[in-house]
Fold:
Amino acid sequence: MRRPAPARDERKHPQASKPAILFDLDGTLLDSNYEHVSAWRLALRREGVELPNAFLHRCIGMRGDLLIRAAFREIGRTVGDKTKKRLDKLHKKYFEKTLPSVRALPGSERLLKKLSELKVPWAIATGGDEKTVRRMIRPFQIPTAIPVITADHVEQAKPDPNVFLMAARELGVALSDSMVVGDSVWDLLGARRAKALGIGLLCGGYGEAELVQAGAYRVYKDPADLLDRLAEIGIPAE
Structure:
């Protein structure tokens, strides 16, 4: 398993004057939430677990073992570690089959490019496994210097804030000087636990009230909307 490069020495790399931005991936930069819903539905069905898509959608963004436990609890069953591992592998198998249909959300590529032009530090922090994530972000042509933190790099994925903490450390900034951009309550709960500012996007399917209640201090339609209103989060567009 590849680990990120060691965090930069902040004495040699002073804290950036502009806030760092840490992006979730699924439902934030890529329109992939419903592919995850479908993959989990098929995987759970193999264990005789039938749940509405709406329930599964509300779980997308949390780490896999928590989603599986929530699904079994919903039908009044318990689940063992072997079953959780089997279901996680099945989800990955079914999800990988959908990757050719996954597309970038409106404005995501332009937003990342603009932040790089403005020299705003940014990173991707997601709960997916590294191999799959690397395939997913290939169309973005992300520079090798940009940290991409996945579930493979941390002990606990979202809603634990570990992926965000590691992403900020890789950028050489404090998480309290960072903003987390995500589409789910799990992203924003993770940001809140780590005392980072949360920015919600509606393109993942959650409502504005839900995102605000989870801790978002600003909510935008999608990456394109955020790009048009960067000044609102303290980033001058020029």
User: Anything to note?
Assistant: Residues 33-101 form a domain with the DNA polymerase; domain 1 fold (CATH 1.10.150.240). The longest helix spans residues 81-98. The beta strands are 20-23, 122-125, 148-149, 178-182, 197-201, 216-220. DSSP finds ten helices and six strands in the chain.
